[in-house]
């Protein structure tokens, strides 16, 4: 985690978000979006590899996630994140970057494009939250009782988050990686923020854009871990089928956390996709 530091920030309507860049700013831009309940750290192996291939790679911690600000009453909904992403793209001065989005980052990227006019050169969706129904049984339970979960003793809360994050991986997470993903959600502010983002995960934010997927007019690839227990592989195939010309690429022996379970395979697939004419 010491080697993964987001040095820049932008003040938004949803508090300050942190972002960083890898590679030469003059190179072709690629933006990476993380999902829930993670942070930009999920890209700590993929991002440097993409930058080494001659790309300018931008990463950010979404509002209320990772090293970005966490505050009581903060709007961290998918609606708000889509608006923040559109703000970031304008702040970076990126007219048409390639975008790679994991988990609910997929919905954020889709909302920014379909509802807020953000333009992309290409879009890669990785085990994306984009179709109903949304959320695991635990996710739905916590969403309905967030005020109760917020009162858990700190050690019990940390153990719960560790188990939850671990369940997203098929290969298993190294202790240092698991700690880097869990640590932002600990302490009083982190614990409240963890249940806040779950409580605000409203399916209507995917329902609102799902009918628009057939209107997408750009190259799209859908990558999916074959062992994803959070969002079944069949959802990836369904999503690809709704988007004109989209390709479905299964990633063998990877769970929901494909960027950590199979970084080399995912990087290879992304480089091939980004290089297509």
From TrEMBL:
<dbReference type="InterPro" id="IPR050266">
    <property type="entry name" value="AB_hydrolase_sf"/>
</dbReference>
<protein>
    <submittedName>
        <fullName>Alpha/beta fold hydrolase</fullName>
    </submittedName>
</protein>
<dbReference type="InterPro" id="IPR000639">
    <property type="entry name" value="Epox_hydrolase-like"/>
</dbReference>
<dbReference type="InterPro" id="IPR029058">
    <property type="entry name" value="AB_hydrolase_fold"/>
</dbReference>
<keyword id="KW-0378">Hydrolase</keyword>
<feature type="domain" description="AB hydrolase-1">
    <location>
        <begin position="29"/>
        <end position="263"/>
    </location>
</feature>
<dbReference type="Pfam" id="PF00561">
    <property type="entry name" value="Abhydrolase_1"/>
</dbReference>
<dbReference type="GO" id="GO:0016787">
    <property type="term" value="F:hydrolase activity"/>
</dbReference>
<dbReference type="InterPro" id="IPR000073">
    <property type="entry name" value="AB_hydrolase_1"/>
</dbReference>
């Amino acid at each position: 985690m010491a080697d993964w530091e987001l040095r820049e920030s932008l003040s938004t309507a949803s508090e300050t978000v942190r972002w960083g860049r890898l590679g030469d700013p003059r190179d072709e831009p690629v933006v990476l979006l993380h999902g829930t309940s993670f942070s930009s750290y999920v890209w700590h192996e993929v991002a440097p590899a993409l930058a080494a291939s001659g790309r300018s790679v931008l990463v950010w911690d979404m509002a209320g996630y990772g090293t970005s600000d966490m505050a009581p009453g903060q709007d961290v909904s998918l609606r708000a994140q889509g608006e923040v992403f559109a703000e970031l793209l304008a702040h970076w001065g990126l007219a048409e970057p390639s975008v790679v989005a994991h988990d609910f980052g997929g919905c954020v990227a889709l909302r920014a494009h379909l509802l807020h006019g953000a333009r992309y050169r290409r879009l890669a969706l990785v085990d994306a939250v984009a179709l109903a129904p949304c959320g695991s049984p635990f996710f739905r339970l916590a969403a309905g009782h967030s005020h109760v979960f917020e009162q858990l003793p700190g050690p019990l809360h940390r153990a719960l988050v560790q188990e939850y994050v671990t369940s997203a991986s098929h290969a298993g997470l190294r202790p240092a990686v698991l700690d880097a993903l869990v640590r932002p959600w600990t302490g009083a502010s982190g614990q409240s923020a963890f249940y806040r983002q779950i409580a605000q995960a409203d399916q209507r934010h995917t329902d609102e854009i799902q009918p628009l997927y057939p209107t997408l007019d750009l190259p799209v690839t859908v990558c999916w871990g074959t062992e994803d227990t959070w969002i079944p592989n069949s959802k990836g195939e369904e999503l690809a089928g709704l988007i004109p010309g989209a390709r479905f690429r299964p990633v063998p022996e990877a769970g929901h956390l494909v960027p950590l379970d199979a970084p080399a395979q995912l990087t290879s697939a992304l480089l091939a996709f980004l290089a297509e004419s």
